[in-house]
Amino acid sequence: MQTTNLDGENSLKLKEGLSSLTNLIETNNGKLNLIRGIIEIDQPNSNIYKTNGKISINDQKYLFNNDNILLRSATLKNIDFVYGIVIYTGKDTKIMNNNNQ
Length: 101
Prior knowledge:
Layout: H1 4-7, H2 19-27, E1 38-41, E2 52-57, E3 60-65, H3 94-99
């Protein structure tokens, strides 16, 4: 992922998906509408380098952090596709909070 639009750095940053969730998606033949769960995440804040949360699906908990999220305005490189969940929207996005400081 490239974050030039966010922090001015043009070096690629490695991001990782949650392999256990990828396995769950593949087990359901990519039918995302069959997967139900709850997401708990930090309150919106301006720190673009810190995010923590968990996804609970069928009594399983999957922890995630900043290494597992993509921020608005970031550019993906070297990847064919991404499964994603929108976690912050509107004025609560990291970029909007960061610009308001």
